[in-house]
Amino acid sequence: MTEQIRHTGEPLVSAIIPSYNHENYIEECVLSIVNQTYKNIELIVIDDGSTDRSREILEQLQKQYGFVLVLQDNQGVSKTMNKAIRQYAHGKYITGSASDDFLMLDKVERQVTYMESDPDCSLVFGKVHMVDAHSRIIEGLTVVDPVESVKFEGLIERNCIPAATMMYRKDIWEQCGGYDENSILEDWDMWLKFAYSGKIVYLDEHFANYRWHGTNQTSHTLKMYTAAWNLVQGWKNRMTPELSQKVLARRASITFAVLARNHKKEALKYLQFNHGYRDTFIWTNYSKGLVKLLFCWNSSNRK
Question: Going by CATH, does the domain composed of 2-211 fall within 3.30.70.1520?
Answer without folding.
Answer: no
